[in-house]
Specification:
By secondary structure, the chain is mainly alpha-helical. 69% of the residues lie in helices and 0% in strands.
């Protein structure tokens, strides 16, 4: 599998990963409902899942080093938009906990804490994909250093990350941003070497 196919596969995984996790959780909870080990090890299982998705996000950044800015910005936008239903579902669970807390003491605090952790970890992992687009955008002269800092930080902020992902994709469709004393870099041509290869971007007109 080449770098382009790997990037596509990782994009699909990240877009679906919160839903996959809860599907896995629901199936395992049903299958092992009488087994104490599943409930006892649930924090460990969730931690391993978060670490794995973080490592996969870092791998995505490495693989995307020679990719096109526009395609990476599109991937980041797709991921952020795909996660909106998940966030709405988590919000609904948090709101429901307020009703249940009238009958079950302290359930609101527990549910809200769990929802916050779930949202925060997903924002971090999905933010890595937007960060990959920002890095490549700067590398090819499509973003200024100031823009890269703004987009890089905004990609890890709740709600703001979705808006900036859309704006980043819109900007990726425009021409390169030329900095004073700098020349834009050409994106790699089709068939260029992937990560670890000998490919190196060259200035336009070189």
């Amino acid at each position: 599998m080449n770098a382009k196919h790997s990037i596509t596969a990782l994009t699909v995984f990240e877009a679906a990963q919160p839903y996959v996790f809860w599907l896995m959780f629901s199936v395992c909870a049903h299958v092992f409902e009488d087994a104490d080990w599943f409930s006892d090890n649930l924090p460990l299982i969730a931690t391993v899942w978060v670490l794995a998705t973080g490592i996969i996000g870092a791998l995505y950044i490495w693989l995307s080093w020679n990719s096109e800015f526009r395609s990476l910005a599109r991937n980041a936008m797709i991921i952020k938009l795909a996660h909106i239903p998940y966030y709405l579902l988590v919000f609904a669970c948090a709101a429901l906990s307020i009703i249940l807390s009238l009958k079950i003491p302290f359930i609101t605090v527990a549910v809200w804490a769990f929802c916050f952790i779930a949202d925060a970890t997903l924002i971090v992992t999905s933010g890595l994909y937007e960060l990959a687009a920002v890095i490549v955008g700067v590398r090819y002269g499509r973003l200024t250093p100031v823009q890269s800092v703004m987009y890089g930080i905004a990609g890890f902020l709740f709600c703001v990350d979705v808006v900036t992902a859309i704006i980043l994709f819109a900007q990726s469709r425009r021409g390169p941003v030329m900095s004073v004393g700098a020349r834009a870099m050409q994106p790699p041509a089709a068939g260029s070497y992937g990560p670890g290869g000998a490919y190196g971007p060259r200035p336009m007109g070189a």
